[in-house]
Amino acid sequence: MAEVKKKATRESYGEALTALAERYPQLVVLDADLAAATKTGIFKKAYPDRFFDCGIAEENMMGVAAGLAAAGKIPFASTFAMFAAGRAYEIVRNSIGYPGLNVKIGATHAGISVGEDGATHQCNEDIALMRTIPGMTVIVPCDDTEAKSAVEAAIQHQGPVYMRFGRLAAPILNDPKTYRFEWGKGVQLRDGKDITIVATGLMVAEAVQAAEMLAREGISARVINIHTIKPLDRDMICMAAKETGCIVTVEEHSIIGGLGSAVADCVTECCPVPVVKIGINDEYGHSGSAVELLKEFGLTADNIAATVKKILNH
Amino acid sequence: MDETIRKQLQATACRVRMGILTGIFHAKSGHPGGSLSIAELVTYLYFVKMHVDPKHPDMPDRDRLVLSKGHTAPALYAVLAERGFFPKEELEHLRHIGAMLQGHPCIHTPGVDMSSGSLGQGISAACGMALAGKLDSAAYHVYAILGDGELEEGQVWEAAMFAAHYGLDNLTAIVDNNGLQIDGKITDVCSPEPIDEKFRAFGWHVIVVDDAHDFDKLEEAFREAESISGKPVAIIQKSIKGKGVSFMENQVDWHGKAPNAEQYEQGMQELRAALAEWEA
Predict the structure, then answer these.
(1) How many angstroms separate the first and last alpha carbons of chain A?
(2) ipTM score here?
(3) Which domain does A238 fall in, by range?
C-alpha cells in the first residue's frame, strides 16, 4: 500500500493565507511572536506589508484585530490555541464576538498532540470556550485539503470564525481536486448501520481506520467528519442517531464542552440514543511525543474500535 | 479660542452634563462621576475636532472614537444626541429593557464606533483602526478615551507598545486623570502614576492638560497633538470627577450610582443655572 501523504494543518494555514492574499486584498495577518510555529511566517515572507507582529501580547492582538475588522480589513489573528482561546478569551468574547466583527482566529498547536511542551501548552479546552460565544463559528479541519478550503470559506463568511489547527502532520484524506468545503455541513465518509463514529480534526483519520478494522469483524460503522462544530450539522447527526441507534464521538479535546458535548446536546433533543465520548477525560496532559500521548489518552483507531465493540457487546 | 465659540461650547458641555444626569437618573444606575469629568472633552471632540456626519454615522472616512472607559457611556450618548445622531429622548430609556442605549457602548448604536466597557480593550481596537487607516492611506484620525484607573489593565500597555512600534500618529489617546476609581484614590488602590512618564517611556508623545474643563487648554493640547508625526500622542487631562454637580465633585461614592429624585433635581438646577450663564 502506498504511503499516505501527511501535512500539519498549521502548515496548510500558512500556505492558504499566502495563496489567497492576491484574491482578497483586505486580508491581513497578525501574529504574536509565533510566526515560525503557526506558519504565518510563510505569509510574512511573501507579504511583509500585510503582516503585523504584535509581540507576545495576545490580548492586544485580538483587540487590534477587532479594530482592523471594524475599519474594513479581514484580519487573521494567529497564535497557539492556548493563548487565542485561553488567555485572550474575554477579548475575543467582548471585542470580537459581541460586536460581531469580521475577525478570523487561526489557532494552531491545539490539543494533546502539541506533545513535548507539556500541559501548559496542550489546549484541550478551546472548542468548549469558543463555541459558547454567540455568533462564533468553530472549525476544526481534518487535513491539508480541508484546512485550505476552510481558510477561504472563512474569508467569504462575514463574522467571527475560530479555526483550530494542529502541530502534528495529519494524513491527507481529501482530494483537493474534488473536495468542496461546505459551511456547517458534516461529511459522511463511510456508511454504516450498527453505530456512528463522529470525529473531528486529527481524529477523523483514526475514525476511518477504526471503521475499517470493525468492518473486518463484521461491524458496520458509519463515519462522519464534523469540521464545523458550530454551527453543527444537526440534520446529519440526527439522521445518524435515528438510523444507527448509537454514536461514538472522537476528539483531541476535553470530553467536556467539545464535539462530544455538541453532539450529545443535539441528539438529546432530536433522537435520544447513547452517545459515548472519546477525548481527554477532565485531566491535564504531560510531556511526551505526540504519538505516545495520543496512544496513552486513547485517541487511536485501536481504542475507537475497542470502545465500539464494548458498546455493541461484540 | 473665540469668545463666542467658547461660550457655545461651554453651553453644549452643560447640556451634555444634563443629558448624563437625565440618562442615569432614569436608568436608576450608571456612572455619573467619570461621565461628568469628560463632558468638555467629548464636546470638544464631537463639536470641533472630529469629522463626523450624524446622517451618515458609518461613512468610511469619518474620524473614530473608542470610549475605552466604556462605563462612562452616558457622556458619549449625551454628546451623540446633542450632535444629532439620535433623538435626545433616547437618553431617558438608557439601560432599559428593549432600549437602544446599552449600559456600555455597543457598536450597533448610531455614532458608536466600537463596543467597549471591559476595561483595557478599547485602546487595542483603536490601534487596529489606526493601523487600518495607515494601510489605506486614509485621512481619518482615531481617538481613544481611557480612565486613569483603567491604566492598571496590562492590555493597555501591550497596546501602548504596539502603537509606538507601528508609529500610529493617527491615534490620540486621552487619559481622563480624575484621580479616583471605585475603591478610592488611584494612588491608594494600585497606583498607575506617574502616567506621563510611563507613556513617554513607551514611546508616545505626551501632553498634559492641567485643567480638562478649560476649552482653551483642550484646544491647545489637540493643536499640539496634531503637529506630532511618527508617534502616537497621549493627552493626560487633569479633571474633576463629578464636575459640574457640586455634591458629586471629587466624591468617590459617585463613581457608579444614580441620583435620587431630589439629588437629580438639585443637580439639574445647578446645571440649568450654569447654562443660563453661558447662554447669556
Answers:
(1) 29
(2) 0.97
(3) 187-312
